[in-house]
Each structure stands twice: as C-alpha cells, then as structure tokens.
Amino acid sequence: MTAVRPQPRPGVLNIQAYVPGKSSAPGVAKVFKLSSNETPLGPSPQAVAAYNAVGAHLEDYPDGSASELREAIGQAFGLDPDRIACGAGSDDLLNLLARAYLADGDEAIHTTHGFLVYPIATLGTGAKPIVAAEKNYTADVDAMLAAVTKKTKLVFLANPNNPTGTYIPFDEIKRLHKGLPPSVLLVLDAAYAEYVQRNDYESGIELVATSENVVMCRTFSKIHGLAALRLGWMYGPAHVVDAVNRIRGPFNVNAAAIAAGIAAIKDVAHQERSREHNGRWLAWLTQEIGKLGLKVTPSVANFVLIHFPEAKGHTAKDADAFLTARGLILRQVGAYKLPDALRMSVGTEEANRLVVAALKEFLGRAA
Ligand SMILES: Cc1ncc(COP(=O)(O)O)c(C=O)c1O
Fold first, then answer.
1. Tens of pLDDT along 183-230?
2. First to last CA, the chain
3. 67: closest CA among 266, 258, 265?
4. Which of 43, 124, 139, 218 has the fewest CB atoms lying closer than 10 Å?
5. Of 221, 250, 240, nearest to 162 (Cα)?
6. Nearest to 276 by CA among 304, 302, 305, 296
7. Whose CA is nearest to atom 16 of ligand 1?
C-alpha cells in the first residue's frame, strides 16, 4: 500500500527535467564548451566592472522594479519602460507567462523542435503542450494554426529557434498572429534576435506595439554574455506586463544582474563585435562542415545543427564521444527529437577550427 503523501499538481511528474549542456570532458586539460550557445567573446568589460562594483553593497536588496534597467532597455530599443518586465533569465519570464495564462486543461502550442522550456513551463501549470509539426526543421504557420482549439491559451515560438537555428520571416509571424483568436497570447521568444542578419526578420517589437496579445522575450545570456547572472526581459501590452508583475518574485532580478545589464545594453560596440564575429564564423562553420559531407541546417543564430549518418561508428553519439575526448563539447539534442544531430555553438576561431579538424578526422576513420 502506498503511504498518503503530498502529490504535485497534474502534469508535474510528466516533465522531463531540463538537462543543461555538458561543461567538462573527463581527463582533458583544455576544454572548449560549445554546448550552451554562450558567446565566445564574453561580456562587455563595462558590464564586468559594473558587476564588481555591486560587491561593495551586498547587504542591500535590489530595486524590485529594476527601473534603471528597464529605462536603459527602453532607451536602447525606443520602448516604453512601463511595458517592459525583467526576469531571472528569459526562462523565468516564460514560466511566469505560463503561470499567468495557463490552467489545468488548457493547451499551449509549440513546434516539434521548439525550445524545451515551453513544454516544461506548460506542464508545470497543469496545461497540455500541443506540438505543431515543423517543415524542414522550421516552424510551419499552417500547422501551428491548425493546432489551435478552444482550449488554446498560449503559443510559444522561438524565432530563431533553438536548437535548429532556423527562423520565419516577419510576414509569416504576422500571418500567424492574424490567424490566432485574440484571446490567445503569442509569445515570441527572440533570444537570438541580435545575431540575425536577414532583411525579412523582425524580433516582434512592431507586433507587440500594435496588438494586445503578443509578447516578446529577450535575454542577456547570449550576445551580452551574462548567462551566469540570469537576466532576461519581455516587452508586452500593459495588461500582460501587469499580470506578470503580480506573480513574479518581488526581487526576481538581482542587483549584480541589474548593474551589469545596464552597462551591457549601453555597450553597443561590444555587441557589434560579437555580431561580426558570429556572422563570420557561422558562415565558415556551415561551409566547412558541409564540405566534410555532413548536413548543416542553415542557421541565423549563434550555433549550427549538424546532422550525422546512422552508420555504425559515424553517428551523432559516436561523434560526440570523439569530440569530447578532445575537449570539444557540443550538445546532444535527442531530447529535441533530433537524435542524429549535434548542436555546436559558434566559438572562438581556435575552437571552430579544432572542431572542423576533429570532425574531418572522425569521418575519415574506419568505423
Ligand atoms: C530559445 C531560447 N529561449 C530562451 C532561452 C533562455 O535564456 P535565459 O538564459 O535568458 O533563461 C534560451 C537559452 O538557451 C533559448 O535558447
């Protein structure tokens, strides 16, 4: 007989806990971590200085409304700071949006290879994640719209998506929005927006500004290099920001994150350097890995998805073991329904060249 004990709400025990990218390779002295889409350039030196200065005042609570940070973000993007909310990473905001808008029996849509936090956040509320099929590793607006039912309350879309690196143009985003009932909240997760160099891309700002049911989430973890501090922000209609403010932790963003975030968003030159480095090496990696005979999904973000054959000795798992033994840590993406692929973050020149050389050696070996 099972003892009576507290039970989590329905859905919680169906969650497959998020497994972060590996960060070590046993027995290897020099490790290149290319498993979590972190920037190889690190944060702005000004952000590091601002972070260090906070150390003198650790006894003080942070500003619970992160006013100065919201103003700095507002200034950088030309947005009303009152329509911005900050979170402990954009993960925090994605979870808060789920908590604010989903309840038992509701449905939230995401795409086949969508970011794993979406089903986790959905199940945590007792709602049901609904998967809309992708086409060519890319979100398919028709499939997303076909998945809408009376129970749909939320649609999560990463644009560009992780781990595929693909995106859909703004016209398609607008078509998706147009096809959704006004009661459904469209969450545009633009964690990698800064890296996109395409004329038909828009992160979502314009749609948020002109509608009542769209939110855009952004992060300081990628181009700003502040992943360790956990900092993200969202821009939304006043009523959505109000709902999130009611349920978020009163001090959900810490003082060091606020200080570093303000400095980072102002250091445009550093962001530019990161964008330039990424553009150059993303193209190089796509081309060089392609030349080895491996398929690389065209990416507009700061990582590439590399597809491996099923042949024994040459699989994604074999490649992962081979690379890890050389201190090159990529990400297995089986949890994203991509068991035959590895995701590689764009790294330093040294790391990028080492991976291509190692893959060449790996493929040249007899199985
Ligand atoms: C698509 C997407 N959204 C959100 C996040 C979460 O970022 P944060 O570090 O701000 O929680 C990630 C992180 O990898 C991501 O890939």
1. 999 999 999 999 999 999 999 999 999 999 999 999 999 999 999 999
2. 51
3. 258
4. 124
5. 221
6. 302
7. 162
